[in-house]
Amino acid sequence: MLSRTKRMRLWTYLLDAPVVAVLTFVFFFLMDKPNRNLGACLTGVVCIGLIPLSAWFHMVRHPGDYKGERKVAFVLSIVGYMIGTIIMVVFFREARLFLALMLSYMFTVVGLVVINLLHYKASGHAAGVSGPATALTIRYGWPGAISYLLLVLVALAKINIKEHTLGQLCTGAGITIASTLAAFAVTGMLRF
């Protein structure tokens, strides 16, 4: 049986931002038929999901080096998000839902980098869950808002393994909620 710390660590892997991103892009591709675009979905899966997820290879080579993995993940996220945003703007601009998702991640990573450069460790996990939850809420109203409950799991796990404080979790979530609202507004996908 897994120890409490290992169970909490497992939750952090299952709710890692790129994992949630892949699920989000696939969910919207399958469920939001008016906005279905396979190229845009695959761009998101690769650039927001698979490229940042390759940071896990750092953990294979350096087990337990969570600080190093965080740095590698940030760099790979920036690279993936920039590539994805360029591809989305050039080739899939008409897929506004996917463009909004892509911009949400791009705006979020910029916000997280700025906060981290100020030597404050905002939570990327809270950001990775709250962005899709905000997108689901924008698209589906209160049923989408139920996905915010995943933030509770993230908070429990990250606080339990002593990687974040409640303030750091709230900062990561706040940056992403604002970024997602801005991205959906910019693309005309935000309804009032």
Features:
single chain; 192 residues; mainly alpha; 0% strand
Strand tally, please?
0
How would you describe the shape? globular
Return the average pLDDT rounded to an integer: 91
* Helix and strand sequence: HHHHHHHHHH
Low-confidence stretches: none
What's the structural domain tally? Answer: 1
State the end-to-end CA separation: 49 Å
Number of helices: 10
Helix content: over 70%
Q: Report the β-strand fraction as a percent range.
A: under 5%
Structural class: mainly alpha
Sheet with the most strands, sense and barrel status: none
Written account of the structure:
This protein has 192 residues and is an all-alpha fold. The protein has one domain (4-185). It is 78% helix and 0% strand. The chain starts with a helix and ends in a 6-residue tail after the last helix.
Summarize the structure.
This protein is mostly helical. It is built from ten helices and no strands. It has one domain (about 5-185).
Fold blueprint:
Elements (H helix, E strand, L loop, with lengths): L3 H11 L2 H15 L6 H16 L2 H6 L4 H26 L4 H22 L6 H17 L1 H4 L4 H11 L5 H21 L6
